[in-house]
Amino acid sequence: MELKKRTFRIIQPHTKNDIPSAIYDWFIFVLVVVDMITTILATVSSFSRFETAFIVIEIITVIVFAIEYILRFWTADLFRRKENPLKARLKYAFSFIMIVDLMAIAPFFLQFVFPVNIHILRTFRLLRIFRLLRVRKYVKTLSQFHDILKQKASQLFFSMIILFVLMLVASTLMYTAENEAQPEVFDNAMSGLWWAIITMTTIGYGDIYPITAGGKVIGALFSLLSVAIIAVPTGIISAGFIESNYLHKKIASNTNKKSKPFCPYCGENLDE
Asked: For 22-38, what is the mean pLDDT?
């Protein structure tokens, strides 16, 4: 039991004064970065002579990540002690972080299970990019950003709905104004959606644009409106960071209260 507890403490993001856990976190972090670099370089033809080295790195990373996945599954019952161990492990297996870990190692084994051609095999290998999501566990700012997105999900979703509705309105109005002048470009009400997306996100590729006076007025109005609308999600996330930083400072300053150990994967407190 002591071995399981110590294993669990090591494989979760480290706390202060836990040197083995800190070393482990940095080891996994570096391994993920190296794996991502080799994944990208493997697609460059001029680096084809290093294919053997890339394969060796992939095998090493898969073995390490597979062992880690097994260890996390084995220790999953430690933060769900009130539940049946099997039930706790199954819940943990379907958590976001475990699904990411599974997607990080699954492509390597799938190529041996299913007969695939070289193009599908390359797609499987590129799916290793999901391993980059593992970095969130070891970088405090990314973890904080993830928590803020969860807390502000409803507000962000509502702002995205408003933005999508405005895009549909802009697309319809632009079709009405430009259909006669550019029937090959704005041939239906949905054809202007691409223009609305690139305009209201302030990208503006210039491949589709209005040429009539009415279309230019509509384009100008929605371009100005989009500046305010796009700023809403940014403001929500910024407010979330301010609230999160204030909360962390408040907790850190409250030294008289002893907090329970916290599991960053399941969001639950751990029992000592």
From this structure: 83
